[in-house]
Amino acid sequence: MICLVRHGQTALNRAKVLQGRSDPPLNEIGRQQARKIGAWLRTEGIVFDRVYSSPLQRAIQTAKQIAGDIPIQTDERLIEMDYGPYEGLDLRRMPPEVLAFFSDFVHMPAPPGMEPLSSVTNRLGQFLEERKAEAGEGNLLISTHAIAMKGALEYLTPESHGAYWGKHIGNCAVYAAEWNEGAASVLFELAAGLW
Length: 195
Fold this sequence. Notes:
- The protein is 36% helix and 16% strand.
- The chain is of the alpha/beta class.
- The protein has one domain (2-189): Rossmann fold.
- It has a six-stranded mixed sheet, with helices on both faces.
- Strand 2 (50-53), helix 3 (57-67) and strand 3 (72-74) form a beta-alpha-beta unit.
- Helix 2 (28-43) runs parallel beside helix 3 and helix 5 (117-130) packs across helix 7.
- The mean pLDDT is 92.
């Protein structure tokens, strides 16, 4: 099984700032969220054989809180979408092109300077393809970011036709997926309603 988790809250999340490739640590709420998810997964009997993370510290810190002493392997492909000139944007004051994109990811292209969603999906898909054999041998934890996670879910379920792009994925949301006879299936959102 593969468990995809979005990192816990940071000060920039709380301030409603588009943080993208910025590298703030988890705040206290984020650390509590990650600890709570880790404890909940253990009570459900879910332990991890391998742990992968985005190289950004908020994702690494989340993975450590959840997986404990299991070594964490970082991979650049798990990093958040590159927001380019919009990095650091106040999400309460979005320019029209960003508001249009965030309102309809499926039909609106990313504004100039932002990484296209197809690039996000392709790099997450490449990473996941390389994990197929490992996922068949044990449980994997992948700690990443909201848009990167949506790209992974879109890759795993092409029949969703963009449904995950519009779905809200909160801090420390966890999705489980499995590979069955070469095809992937997203089983369910594991961590809804924990806080």
